[in-house]
């Protein structure tokens, strides 16, 4: 069975997130945001990738494992079941399935943390991805 970590950066500074990743032995961050930009300093794709590299942590953006816009809107409104249904439908697509396979392969080779915005994995599609991987997860 795969063992992955999940982490949300909501309310956290970039240095805090990187410290938590390092403390957990994470080797690769799997960015599972559909849109890898952020209003929070340090969490847009290019800046985050560079900071992670300086900390000795790899970075891969899995855009096709991100929640579609209607799912993100549902999550923001606290409608987790609706978000999960939208995400499950999205995951039936060929590109999403190919990305899930690539993530599974990466997680078999290295300690991976799934990264998204939401602080709590239970209200985020990260939890659904862990289930789809058939993995156990440490929420950092």
From TrEMBL:
Pfam families on file: DUF488
InterPro entries recorded: DUF488, UCP024492
Protein name, per record: DUF488 domain-containing protein
Native species: Rubrimonas cliftonensis
Source species taxonomy: Bacteria, Pseudomonadati, Pseudomonadota, Alphaproteobacteria, Rhodobacterales
């Amino acid at each position: 069975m795969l063992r992955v970590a999940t982490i949300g950066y909501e309310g956290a500074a970039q240095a805090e997130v990187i410290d938590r990743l390092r403390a957990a032995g994470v080797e690769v961050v799997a960015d599972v945001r559909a849109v890898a930009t952020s209003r929070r300093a340090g969490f847009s794709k290019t800046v985050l990738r560079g900071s992670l590299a300086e900390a000795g942590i790899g970075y891969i953006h899995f855009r096709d494992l991100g929640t579609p816009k209607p799912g993100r809107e549902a999550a923001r409104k606290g409608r987790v079941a609706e978000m999960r249904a939208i995400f499950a439908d999205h995951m039936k697509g060929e590109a999403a399935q190919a990305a899930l396979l690539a993530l599974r392969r990466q997680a078999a080779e290295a300690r991976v943390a799934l990264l998204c915005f939401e602080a709590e994995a239970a209200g985020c599609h990260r939890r659904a991805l862990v289930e789809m991987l058939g993995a156990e997860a440490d929420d950092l």
